[in-house]
Amino acid sequence: MYLIIPPKYSVSYAVGLIKSKSSSWLKKKNKKIPQGSFCCRGYFVSTVGVNEFAIKTYLRDQDKKRVDKLKLGFW
Q: Where does the Transposase IS200-like domain start and stop, copy by copy (predicted)?
């Protein structure tokens, strides 16, 4: 996931918000998910020393590789 977090928000706040909103959304979509914690505790965050174009290119290429692997698995 590639995120740009404004300086006024901490990384932990942004991750907590993502985990909270995605958990709520999933529970609304699937009533079989039990109440309580849905996400694991903790997270991993890292920064990279490359520019935005390089990151987006890498992510786009990873998606293509994943699709190619899935196609191979079905044949």
A: 4-62
Sequence length of the chain is 75
Q: Residue 39 is encoded by which pair of tokens?
A: 């996400």
- Distance, in Å, from the CA atom of 11 to the CA atom of 70, rounded to the nearest integer, reads 33
3-state secondary structure of 18: helix
> Residue 71 is which amino acid?
K
Name the pTM for this structure: 0.50
> How far is residue 26's CA from residue 6's CA, in Å, rounded to a whole number?
26
For 8-67, what is each residue's pLDDT tens digit? 988 889 888 888 888 888 878 877 777 766 666 777 677 767 777 877 787 777 766 655
| Alpha carbon 53 to chain centroid, angstroms | 19
